[in-house]
Amino acid sequence: MRTVVISGASSGIGEATAARFHRAGDHVVNLDVRPPRPGSAVRWVPADVADWSATEQALADVHQERGRIDVVIANAGISVRHGVLDISEADARRVCDVNLLGVLGLWRAAARHMVRQGEGVLLATASVNGLRGYPFYADYNATKAGVVALCRTFALELSPHIRTACVSPGAVLTPMQEAEYTGDMLDEVNRRIPAGRHAAPEEIADAFFYLASPEARFLTGQELVIDGGETAGA
Ligand code: NAD
Predict the structure, then answer these.
(1) How far apart are CA 10 and CA 146, in angstroms?
(2) Range of the structural domain that residue 167 is part of
(3) 96 ligand 1 Cβ < 6 A
(4) 210 is catalytic
(5) What is the pLDDT along the chain (234 residues), one digit of tens a residue?
(6) Is residue 179 included in any domain, yes or no?
(7) Which of 137, 140, 181, 210 is catalytic?
(8) What's the pTM?
(9) Which helix or strand (DSSP H or E) is residue 5 part of?
(10) Is 53 inside any structural domain?
(11) CA distance 84 to 186
(12) Shortest CA distance to 32 belongs to which of 4, 7, 57, 69?
């Protein structure tokens, strides 16, 4: 039974990923600012990933209780739609604090435990938005490219004992994504995806499960794009 910590597991991709590991018999801890849906079998620890001392304390508590931390998935993320002329400083700083520095803080805290135990896997949710331009999400896009840079750097500094990887999803039907859509935008986006549809959160969860497994033992410092072919022709 592995000890697996996932941020942002009260909703969407994180929730599906927590369920995937829980089903496999792993001990899963969800760090989220919001509570999970009623009936969730996964343990929730309230924490804001932008607050490094909060995530550090949460991981220290998990480590003390479980004796080890095997897998950490930095998944919590937010987005704000705004044009580059109108981005507010407060919004941009919050997006960076959560999506980029939140990953760095959580990974740093986890890596300190993993280095002592001699092994561990650090995973994160990036996005195809880090791979190419998407209008109205300048700060979000930059944070996602930054997460891939963190992934490469941690791999170089902490190999061979610690592995890292990011999953870069294309469009996934989650509350975050649905909140962005008005009118027939959903169908419009589906038409742009070669697979003809959005991913289900479970399809991203399966990728995380693979990346954390021994089957991925020679994979580190890499970004795995799961986008139904959206960026294949880009
Ligand atoms: P979601 O809004 O359904 O879930 C995000 C979860 O993160 C929520 O439970 C929220 O409470 C939590 N969260 C937000 N800020 C937090 C903070 N500061 N500290 C702790 N928890 C926090 O969104 P989702 O679509 O499942 O997104 C998950 C990740 O996937 C994000 O990093 C997002 O950028 C990325 N992503 C999503 C899509 C998509 O199409 N949905 C595509 C590519 C990447």
Answers:
(1) 24
(2) 3-226
(3) no
(4) no
(5) 999 999 999 999 999 999 999 999 999 999 999 999 999 989 999 999 999 999 999 999 999 999 999 999 999 999 999 999 999 999 999 999 999 999 999 999 999 999 999 999 999 999 999 999 999 999 999 999 999 999 999 999 999 999 999 999 999 998 888 888 888 999 999 999 999 999 999 999 999 999 999 999 999 999 999 999 999 987
(6) yes
(7) 140
(8) 0.98
(9) strand 3-7
(10) yes
(11) 24
(12) 7
Q: What's the rounded Cα separation, in Å, for the pair 23 and 35?
A: 20
- Residue 97, in any domain of the structure: yes
Alpha-carbon distances of 148 from 5, 114, 224, rounded to whole Å: 19, 20, 10
**Ligand 1 mutation pick, 52, 134, 174, 193, max ligand atoms within 8 A of CB:** 174
Q: Is 127 in the pocket of ligand 1 (CB under 6 A)?
A: yes
Instruction: Supply φ then ψ for residue 137, to 5 degrees.
Output: -135, 45
Does any ligand 1 atom lie closer than 6 A to the CB of residue 105? Answer: no
Q: Ligand 1: does its nearest atom lie under 6 Å from the Cβ of 55? A: no
CA 199 to ligand 1 center in whole angstroms: 15
Residue 115 inside a domain? The answer is yes
Q: Predicted ipTM?
A: 0.99
CA of 50 to the centre of ligand 1 (A): 13
Distance 120 CA to ligand 1 centre (A): 23
12 lines ligand 1 (CB under 6 A): yes
- Answer whether 35 contacts ligand 1 (Cβ < 6 A): no
CATH code, domain with 115: 3.40.50.720
Tally of domains in the chain: 1
